[in-house]
Design a protein that fits this description.
There is one protein chain. The chain is α+β, with helices and mostly antiparallel strands. It has 12 helices and 8 strands. A 4-stranded mixed sheet has the order 1-6-3-7. Strand 4 and strand 5 form a beta hairpin. Helix 11 runs antiparallel to helix 12. The mean pLDDT is 91.
């Protein structure tokens, strides 16, 4: 888990003054990572996310977060990770952790920045998936969009969009989706 990894690597994180946390809710890279890396290097915020969301409270969405020197030096950052607990449902996890950590750090005076959205209302990874990839070179596609498509977004051309940037990945996604659909 992130909590264990962060505690285990605390000395290294404090030494490097930066840590990026990302999870496996994406497939990628759909487009080359060089644009993302360039955007991250240009960003001077204390906490950087790929996208933001206004749901509950304004926050950075959690699949990819970069914490820089001021955030890592903040005692509340480490207290947050030390107090992680299990919650009975995803909504509680989102409210307490995905929303909770950026809100906590903002209260501590940290500057937060989203590099692919600004005051998004809802799940940008679903609603704006195609625009993110084609217009902003966003390097990922959300697994839940293609696996379940809970918001019934038009994803009919996802193969062509992914294939254009990463042919082998498009085939891997197709294979994984087929495996899921087989009983």
């Amino acid at each position: 888990s992130w909590m264990t990894g962060i505690r285990y690597c605390r000395q290294l994180i404090e030494q490097r003054q930066q840590v990026v946390l990302c999870n496996d809710s994406f497939w990628g890279p759909v487009r080359p990572l060089k644009d993302l890396i360039k955007r991250l290097h240009q960003c001077t915020a204390d906490v950087v996310g790929l996208t933001d969301n206004l749901m509950y409270e304004p926050h950075l969405q959690s699949p990819f977060l970069m914490f820089n020197k001021r955030a890592i030096s903040c005692p509340e950052f480490w207290t947050f990770w030390g107090n992680i607990q299990c919650w009975p449902n995803k909504r509680s996890i989102v409210k307490n952790y995905e929303v909770g950590l950026p809100v906590l750090l903002k209260k501590e005076g940290m500057e937060l920045e989203s590099i692919y959205s600004n005051n998004a209302n809802g799940n940008t990874y679903h609603a704006e998936w195609k625009s993110l990839i084609e217009n902003q070179n966003f390097p990922f596609i959300k697994r839940s969009l293609l696996r379940g498509n809970p918001h019934k977004i038009d994803i009919s051309d996802w193969r062509a969009v992914v294939y254009k940037g990463n042919k082998p990945l498009a085939r891997q996604i197709e294979d994984q989706l087929e495996d899921i659909q087989q009983p």
